[in-house]
Amino acid sequence: MLHIGCHLSASKGFAAMGREALKINADTFQFFTRNPRGGAAKEIDEADVKALLQIVQANAFAPLLAHAPYTLNVCSAKEETRTFARSIFKDDLERMEYLPGSYYNFHPGSHVGQGVDVGCDFIVEMLNAFITPQQSTTVLLETMAGKGSEIGRSFEELQNILEKVEQQEKVGICLDTCHVLDGGYDIVNRLEEVLEKFDKVIGLKKLRAVHLNDSMYGLESHKDRHAKIGEGAIGLEAISRIICHPVLKTLPFYLETPNDVQGYGEEIQLLRGIFQRESEGK
Ligand code: FE
Ligand code: FE
Ligand code: ZN
């Protein structure tokens, strides 16, 4: 069975996202832990969380994926921005325990000219300061397009960070299909090679989730502009190979395509159909 969902707005609360996911035949979803531009998170409503957990259990959802705000940049040259990033990361991880066993995805950050090594050190420092052996959340570093001075454009950069994390069981990677193509990995024509490379550099057991997006621009463009499924440089055929690939098909997929909820529903229906036909060998 294909585990697939999409990004949903958290503005109406947790249970509302669960209901919305069910309506579009999703069995998971992604949401922002707070305003994507940062700022204070809403007070947790325990009854609302409980209602979501009931939906999650009753419908055997794949792990939910929380996304950190884009403004979280622990590699900033400004002390103030780094302190802000650490406080959000810490607070988010504490709040995540209301949704046991979920994933928390963040953009590693932009080193803004200080260099990749300096940036990676700041990231490792934050991860080791706040990830605890007791937490049930797995923290995921997202593969990045390499826009500007973004860290995480290559598997080597991500591994540089991952290998220095003390709580190895609590960290992994979220592969964004738009970003890896932009970053220079040809998942359209050389999916097998890209996965072999990932395995060699990081290890496939660290791959925990996929952001499933088409890309407006092509290989090595470093643009980070998402497109609807089948309407970009990746295309429906390559996306079908991705969701049906033996090492990927058991992972949860999260759509971040430019869609409203109905549009997401149509993409989910399309992809479920493809997956179903493929697994029946038609
Ligand atoms: Fe992201
Ligand atoms: Fe993404
Ligand atoms: Zn993106």
For the largest sheet, list the strands in their spatial order.
1-2-3-4-6-8-9-12
First-to-last CA distance: 16 Å
- What order do the SSEs take from the amino end to the carboxyl end, as H and E? EHEHEHEEHEEHEHHEEEHEH
CATH fold group = TIM Barrel
Biggest sheet character = 8 strands, parallel, barrel
The radius of gyration is 18 Å
Bound compounds = fe (iii) ion, zinc ion
CATH class: Alpha Beta
The overall number of domains is: 1
Helicity range:
25-40%
CATH superfamily: Divalent-metal-dependent TIM barrel enzymes
Can you give the mean pLDDT? Answer: 97
Q: What is the CATH architecture descriptor?
A: Alpha-Beta Barrel
* Strand runs, count: 12
Number of H- or I-type helical stretches: 9
Low-confidence segments: none
Shape assignment: globular
Protein structure class: alpha/beta
Strand content is 15-25%
Provide an overview of this structure.
The protein contains 9 helices and 12 strands. The chain has a single domain (4-279), classed as Alpha-Beta Barrel (TIM Barrel), CATH 3.20.20.150. It has helices at 14-23, 46-58, 79-96, 116-130, 155-162, 177-183, 191-201, 235-244, 261-279; strands at residues 4-7, 29-32, 65-67, 103-106, 109-110, 138-142, 150-151, 171-176, 207-212, 214-215, 226-227, 253-255. The longest helix has 19 residues, at 261-279. With 282 residues, the protein is α/β, with parallel strands linked by helices. Helix 2 (46-58) links the parallel strand 2 (29-32) and strand 3 (65-67). The strands form 3 sheets. Strands 1-2-3-4-6-8-9-12 form an 8-stranded parallel β-barrel, surrounded by 4 helices. A two-stranded antiparallel sheet has the order 5-7. The protein has a two-stranded antiparallel sheet with strand order 10-11. Residues 142, 176, 211, 256 line the site of one fe (iii) ion. One fe (iii) ion (FE) binds next to loops.
